[in-house]
Amino acid sequence: MPSFVRIQDIADILIMTLLLYQLYSWFRRTRAMQVLLGLGVVTIIYFVTRFLGLYMTSWILQELGTVLIVLIIVVFQAEIRQALYRFSLMRHFFGSRQGPQQLGRFQEIVDTLFSLAEKRTGAIVVFQRSESLTDMMLNGVTLDCEITPQMLEAIFYDGAPLHDGAVLIRDGRIALASCHLPLSLNSDLPQYYGTRHRAALGLSERTDAVVAVVSEERGEVSLAEGGELRRLSSAGELVSILLNLISPEKERPHVTLKQWFFSDLLAKTAVLLIVMVFWALITSRQGAIATVSAPVRLHGMPQDLVLMRSSPEEVEVQVKSFSSLTPTPAKLDIAADVDLSEVREGQATVRIRNSDFRLPSGMVVGSVSPSSISIVTDKKVRKTVPVRVVVRGRMPRGLGGYQLVASPASLEVEGPAGQISRLESVATEEVDAGKLLKGEEYRKNLLPLPKYVTILRDKPLTLKLVSRRSAP
Question: Based on the number of CB atoms within 10 Å of its own CB, is 200 exposed (0-12), middle (13-18) or buried (19 or more)?
Answer without folding.
Answer: buried
